[in-house]
Design a protein that fits this description.
- Keywords: Cell membrane, Chloride, Chloride channel, Glycoprotein, Ion channel, Ion transport, Membrane, Transmembrane, Transmembrane helix, Transport.
- It comes from Carassius auratus (Goldfish).
- About 75% of the residues lie in helices and about 5% in strands.
- It is built from three helices and two strands, in the order αββαα.
- Strand 1 and strand 2 form a beta hairpin.
């Protein structure tokens, strides 16, 4: 039997994420140790998710206010110079939104790749465990049958 071992190496972003201050929902600081079954650790992860969701909400609110001001507060058609300055602002807003979307897609692809690697390692480990147990079962069966 071949006992090839694959060691798990955590990605760089997990080390970076663990450097954030961990705070539970009562705003009490927590230590940085990885304890997924601990209620306070789960609350700190929920808190980080809420901070990200709040940032997204503020971003969408600012974008909605900007677009409503752009649509509702139109100036007269006679002012040609103000149109040029508004189109520049709209262009840069579109560029920024496009870059944010590209970054989000890139992060999604990276997460997909990491998930794929994790599933592959899990499948490989289960295959090795099954192979080892089958080998032990043949030895135990041979020993019991020889009695």
């Amino acid at each position: 039997m071949s006992s090839a071992s694959v060691d798990y190496i955590a990605p760089w972003w997990t080390y970076w994420l663990h450097q954030f201050p961990h705070v539970n929902l009562r705003f009490q600081p927590l230590d940085h140790t990885f304890k997924p079954q601990d209620e306070n650790y789960q609350q700190s992860l929920i808190f980080l998710g809420c901070v990200a969701a709040a940032g997204l909400g503020v971003n969408l609110l600012c974008l909605a206010i900007y677009l409503s001001c752009l649509c509702c507060c139109r100036r007269d058609e006679v002012e040609e110079e103000s149109k040029k300055s508004n189109s520049c602002c709209v262009t840069w807003t579109a560029v920024a939104a496009g870059l944010i979307c590209c970054v989000a897609v890139g992060v999604g692809f990276y997460g997909n790749s990491e998930t794929n690697d994790g599933v592959y390692q899990l499948t490989y480990s289960l295959y090795n465990a099954n192979h080892t147990l089958a080998g032990v079962d043949s030895l135990v069966t041979g020993t019991v049958g020889g009695m």
